[in-house]
Amino acid sequence: MSSSVNGRADALATSGIENGNLPNRPKTAVKVASNMEELMQAFVVRAAVFMSEQRCPYAEEFDGNDFTATQILGLIGDEPAATIRVRYFAGFAKPERLAVRREFRKTGIAADVIEFAVELCRQKGYAKLYGHAQERLVPFWKRFGFAPMGRPDFIFSDHKYIEIQRDLDPMPNALTITEDPMVLVRPEGQWHEHGVLERSADRHATNPTGD
After folding, report:
1. How many Å apart are CA 168 and CA 23, to the nearest integer?
2. Less packed terminus of the chain by CB within 10 Å, N or C?
3. CA distances, 128 to each of 18, 60, 81, 91, 119 (Å)
4. By C-alpha distance, which of 94, 99, 89, 88 is closest to 137?
């Protein structure tokens, strides 16, 4: 395994995401949705916020991009509380669909999932984030380092949107093509942990197809 992998701190686990020990805060956790149950939990949060509260039509909320994105899930105890997804392009990543259930909006979970998404993108080597913010939420996104791009606003799903962006400081040990190949087959966001395919390497190559 390469030295960069051995020396890599678990940025996602050490970026303030586990907050159970902070005063007056419930135990929270943020993770990449990695199975169908976690994926459905993320979708339920979005449905509660966007479809129920904001009356967004189903086809506009679940827009065909969910299976090309990383879904991030925020939990308060065992309860799904927040979500954000990230899509990836050649020169930038796009965090979007941030949703927090009404009853959890004063817990700080929104900041947790945003910070997790940012660190995930830095770990993957991205230096720029791009997003669409509802006009009323631009001040909220400014708190996380995003700035309006100064281009004309636009409308979809009954809301006016502003393009925003944020530059990221490069992560010195971000993932690259020179990584140990077994690191790059680990589950999304868990590059610091040995995965099932590495454990499978304990078996000798038998080429069971006969090729």
Report:
1. 30
2. C
3. 25, 26, 27, 7, 12
4. 99
Q: What is the pLDDT along the chain (211 residues), one digit of tens a residue?
A: 333 333 343 445 433 344 444 456 678 999 999 999 999 999 999 999 999 999 999 999 999 999 999 999 999 999 999 999 999 999 999 999 999 999 999 999 999 999 999 999 999 999 999 999 999 999 999 999 999 999 999 999 999 999 999 999 978 889 999 999 999 999 999 998 988 998 888 888 888 887 6
Q: Are 8 and 184 in contact (CB under 8 A)?
A: no
Domains of the chain: 3-127+168-192 (3.40.630.30)
pTM equals: 0.86
Residue 114 CB partners (closer than 8 Å, separation 6+): 84, 95, 98, 144
The residue length of the chain stands at 211
Phi, psi torsion values for 68, nearest 5 degrees: -115, 15
Count of other CB atoms within 10 angstroms of residue 130: 19
Contact status, residue 77 vs residue 27, Cβ threshold 8 Å: yes
